[in-house]
Amino acid sequence: MLTTTCRRLSQALQRPHALSAVAQRCLRAPGARSYADQNEKAEQPRTFHPALLQFLVCPLSKKPLRYDASTNELINDELGIAYPIIDGVPNMIPQAARTTRQKEKQEETKQH
Question: What range is the organelle transit peptide?
Answer without folding.
Answer: 1-34
